[in-house]
Design brief:
Elements lengths: L3 E2 L38 E2 L3 E4 L2 E5 L7 E2 L6 E5 L1 H7 L4 H4 L6 E2 L13 E2 L2 E2 L5 E3 L2 E2 L15 E8 L3 H4 L6 E7 L7 E9 L3 E11 L6 E11 L9 E12 L5 E15 L4 E9 L5 E12 L7 E18 L2 E19 L3 E23 L2 E22 L12 E20 L2 E20 L4 E19 L5 E12 L14 E13 L5 E21 L2 E21 L4 E16 L15 E10 L8 E10 L17 E11 L10 E8 L7 E4 L2 E4 L4 E9 L1
Parallel strand pairs: 10-13
Antiparallel strand pairs: 1-31, 2-3, 3-4, 4-5, 6-12, 7-8, 8-9, 10-11, 12-13, 14-15, 14-39, 15-16, 16-17, 17-18, 18-21, 19-20, 21-22, 22-23, 23-24, 24-25, 25-26, 26-27, 27-28, 28-29, 29-30, 30-31, 31-32, 32-33, 33-34, 34-35, 35-36, 36-39, 37-38
Length: about 700
Amino acid sequence: MNLKFALLASAPLVLTSGAAHAQSNGAAPIELDPVVVEGKNHGGVPGVIATTGYVATSGRSATKTDTPLLEVPQSVSTVTQPQLEERKPQNLLEAIAYTPGAVVGMYGFDSRYDGFMIRGIDMTNTGVFRDGLRQLNSPNGLFRLEPYGVEAISILRGPAASIYGASSTGGIVDIISKRPTETPFREVELQTGSFGRLQGNFDFSGPLNADQTLFYRLTGVVRDARAELSAGRDDRVFIAPAITWKPNDKTKLTLLGEYMDSTVGGTQVYLNRYAPYVDSQGNVTDKSIGAVKVFAGDRRYNDFRQQQGRIGYEFEHKFSDDLILRQNARYSQLGTNQEYYYFGPGLTRESTAGFVSDTSLESHFTTGPVEHTLLTGLDTSYLHYRSAEGYGGVPLGVDPPLTTQSKQTLAMTGIYVQDQVKWQNWRLTLGGRHDWLYGRFSKGTLGSGVTQSKSRDTKFTGRAALSYVTDFGVAPYVAYGTSFTPNPGTVLNGSVAVPTTGEQTEIGVKYDIPNMNASLRAAVFDMRQNNAVVYEVVDGLNKQVQLDVRSRGVEIEGVASLTNGLSVQASYSYNDARILKLTPDTEGNRLSSVPYHMASLWLDYAFQEGPATGLGIGGGVRYVGSSLGDNLNRSVLDNKPRTFVDASIRYDLENLNPKLAGMRMQVSATNLLNEVKQTCTVGYCYFDEGRKVIASLRYRW
């Protein structure tokens, strides 16, 4: 499937405490224990992720065990709740924009899909997880994120297939949902801002019974708005209920649900100018030579409505401190109805359903002086989607008849084992997994029959990593891992996309500064991905193609939340991504839209005393270096470097009048200086999103 018009699809179709570090030689710890803050301070999810301000100290996303992040031999970044509250991101891309290695602007402005890359690898379809389970997507059915329903986002860079199975070589982005809190929490918020935005939020949580064994959370959003392209709406209704049952300290069951109904523009791009291009084989095709600010669609037929829902649970039972059983499962469903206009009306309807489950047993034991954390597990996933498309032949405003249809089923089962070994200051992680994949695909044109195909595949993936954790908070490491990912949809020649495989070697060092809530990270990586799925504009159509790519780079990150009220997030990344195999004209070329250099800095200061108490000011700068606009590396489509400035200011009104306790005013802006340039990806050109300002009034009690 996925023969989308280029003008339709711009993505495939996110207190202070000493930073924890290990004490393994019997000496007394010199750091403060990390504090997990609940209730109105929103500081992590017990047992899932622990954070103090901007700094995450431990998390389950990287290893599926509650491991100090200093001891995880792989690059991990975390977008914490304070960062989400202070920056007010409106989608996954804005949430991870300050994360090293994340390319988020390659399709300009587009609210339909969260299209992004990490370490030069496209993550859109196969790199997003929700609460430790893969978020199943189809070519035109990608789940949208509501940031207000998110507690934190954990970004693991590099392969994690040895425990997660189907996942991108670039890593995983694990979105952690808000969960019930054991202390009462209540919040309502009103927002207004750019493009006629009017939004209301609410978030309620706390115990449901006197015994405090049952807890709830109910989070919701209602929004009416337009978008950067005024022909598109940005309306949304979101509701996320959650219940936790905790009869004792050994057993815990949490139910997580979500329903979202959203409408955005079906066409969100500009017209491109074309000129003939002759390749090395003498073939002549029309290729884009740039965009013009003329809307490519028609506002009278431009609604893209998507209804999505999910229901799942997380179960944990501790037989003892050394033996823990966990089972997580989720069913999700999504339906889309996309109207667009490209020299005539077009319509795409797609329905997607998926089920994922993961059952694991964590055990702790020793063999002589060596400590083991052994994880064994079984997980399954099932994806089925049905898509139908029609184009032209009817007056504007009338749905064209659906003339082509396709459907696909992908089922995958995997077993895995991981051993985290501790001996003195050494940490060794060994993991292996075997997957069995079954696929079935059919496609046809109404009245002319259906073509069908089936496939079966098996694959072993693994990870081996070694680190040395010093007593003063420094931990160098080396790691190697492989990946395996089934792909939905078809490629350019109409055949079913084959699974993607990959491998990566990474060398890095981590430093948690003793007696400070601050951490520094640096890594060097060398990654290869075979049969990677990317999108290529061919004869005006956006189609899936598969290529081999090699990506190398360096990443540096620092985060801190200090006692004086200053919080910092800084990053730098260098990335050289090259095509190894696609066409004779592209071999050895730089991969489209991947800049060599990116850097970012966000500073936030909350006044602690004096007349300005309650005032918080934040500001950030994001630099995106130059890149190439297509895989042919034509200079006519070079993407110029750009610098974006973001800002935020907030004030707690109780400092004016105690009767206003719990009320906060805030104004947040992205691209404050309105830096808007052309950006081209795989041969089609877009424009950056301009300045966006959101003002809010929040009340907590």
